[in-house]
Design brief:
With 484 residues, this protein is α/β, with parallel strands linked by helices. It is built from 15 helices and 14 strands. The strands form four sheets. Strands 2-4-5-7-6 form a five-stranded mixed beta sheet, with helices on one face. A hairpin with a 2-residue loop joins strand 4 and strand 5. Helix 3 packs parallel to helix 13. The longest helix is centred in the first third of the chain and has 65 residues. It starts with a helix and ends with a helix. About 7% of the residues have low confidence.
């Protein structure tokens, strides 16, 4: 009897050991797969970084050797490569935040019709430049306001529409919305090259790519769709894709976008922002990079703000002591006193009425703020969209914007002689400049060139575009239309 018990115990022990061995094998295989995935990921990141860096480095050397010859071409390549690197960094940060659980959603008031029109205005010129029809399909009856994370929803739609335009050579791109019982269903459809079935199952993997297309002009970061899927899921939605090679692709996003009980008083107007109501406000921009402060100043001064600038924390403190601003945009990494140290001193001296927003590229220092403990009220990561910055200002200062429709804003400065020949697409530059859509502006300038607009004007426009002087670019177009 004892022998039988011993044998049973031995068999039980063997079974347990075999189970442990199987578990160890699974863990080993999982670890190996993770290491292989990590290696592929790092290799992809290395390639994504080295390619645009090589372009920037190479053209910088050519500029030195040629003493400025072909500077415009070099500036265009350097700008595009810089945009590529910025998109890569933003994508990696978004993935990192998703995986670490650090990404937090905002509860914003979204003007839904305005958001759709903004996306359409952003991509319609680019689509037209490729000979595509861009369609915006939305119900006539649509709630003016919904609640959600405006930045993330905009990012999802921009990623999907940008891909549709990029991978479509003929036909159309359609942005469609259906809304019922607070459920929003977005469809982004195109008549492009489509996605092969074997690629479709990996379409949301990081650095996954479909066929790049002719000319190699469809090379992207390879993070857009994986980030898009992650953002949709975090917002409680779902995303699906269907595609036929050679026929086109449809991405469908479903998510709840509830309506507020009462219309908000401080929501950003749907039209182009031209100013704000109430007393004149002062904003202090603190950054040791003069180009950064000049860029923010050029955005805010035309809207009626008094803009002061400082290149250090100590200078900012002195300016605030002499004439306290309503809002401070603070960089973090500066010579001497850091942005955080400056924020603490400003808060101690001027209290909660002074609004402090960190405007920085230091992602590792991200602190949302606004909780009563941190010195800052908000954190805006560089690079930023102008419209997002205006949203921040509206929230912090409780401003009501004054807006004019893009068409009205264009016509306001237009006094064309009856007999003058003015290219009709010049009027599209001003609204695009206001939204900061550099890519669409570059495509539009290319279209103007192909349509025979005078080379000196094209060269001047590209010079303004490469210097990111969008106000100057709009002024050039406005002057040309008015005959100045």
């Amino acid at each position: 009897m004892a022998g039988a018990d011993d044998r049973a115990a031995l068999l039980e022990r063997i079974a347990a050991l075999e189970g442990e061995r199987a578990g160890l094998i699974r863990e080993r295989d999982a670890a190996q797969a993770a290491n292989e995935a990590k290696s592929r990921f790092l290799a992809s990141v290395s390639h994504e970084i080295r390619s645009p860096l090589n372009s920037i480095y190479g053209y910088a050397q050519l500029l030195e050797r040629s003493e400025g010859r072909d500077a415009l071409r070099a500036a265009q390549v350097i700008r595009r490569s810089s945009e590529h690197l910025a998109n890569l960094v933003e994508g990696l940060l978004d993935l990192s935040q998703v995986e670490s659980g650090m990404m937090r959603l905002s509860r914003d008031t979204i003007r839904l019709p305005a958001l759709l029109q903004q996306i359409a205005d952003m991509f319609e010129p680019e689509a037209r430049a490729k000979g595509l029809e861009f369609r915006l399909d939305r119900p006539e009856r649509l709630p003016e306001f919904v609640r959600g994370d405006l930045k993330r929803l905009r990012q999802v739609l921009i990623n999907l529409v940008a891909n549709a335009v990029k991978f479509t050579d003929t036909g159309h791109v359609t942005l469609k919305l259906r809304y019922r019982s607070e459920m929003a269903i977005f469809e982004i459809a195109d008549s492009g090259i489509g996605i092969a079935p074997d690629q479709l199952e990996h379409i949301f993997d990081p650095f996954a790519r479909t066929v790049e297309g002719k000319g190699g002009d469809r090379i992207g970061v390879g993070l857009g769709l994986s980030i898009t899927q992650a953002l949709v899921r975090i917002m409680g939605g779902e995303i699906e894709v269907s595609s036929e090679p050679g026929e086109g692709t449809v991405f469908t996003v479903r998510m709840m976008l509830s309506q507020p009980m009462t219309p908000p008083a401080d929501a950003t107007p749907a039209d182009v922002v031209t100013g704000y109501t109430g007393p004149r406000r002062t904003i202090l921009v603190v950054d040791d990079d003069a180009d950064q402060t000049a860029m923010v100043r050029s955005l805010l001064e035309p809207l009626g703000f008094d803009v002061a600038t400082a290149s250090s924390g100590d200078e900012a403190i002195d300016i605030a002591n002499e004439d306290r601003p309503d809002l401070v945009f603070l960089d973090i990494t500066m010579p001497g006193r850091s942005g955080w140290e400056t924020a603490v001193l400003l808060r101690d001296r001027h209290g909660a009425d002074l609004r402090i927003v960190m405007l920085s590229a230091d992602a590792h220092d991200y602190t949302k703020g606004g909780d009563g403990d941190a010195a800052n009220d908000m954190f805006v990561m560089k690079p930023f969209e102008f419209t997002n910055l205006l949203d921040v200002i509206s929230t912090q200062l409780h401003l009501e914007w004054i807006g004019a429709s893009p068409a009205a804003a264009t016509k306001a400065g237009m006094t064309t002689d009856a007999g003058a020949t003015v290219h009709p697409r010049l009027e599209e530059i001003e609204p695009l400049s206001r939204t900061g859509n550099v890519r669409a502006l570059a495509a539009l300038v290319d279209v103007l060139e192909s349509d025979g607009v005078a080379p000196p004007l094209i060269d001047a426009m590209r010079e303004k575009l490469d210097a990111f002087d969008l106000k100057g670019l709009a002024a050039l177009a406005r002057g040309e239309r008015s005959g100045d």
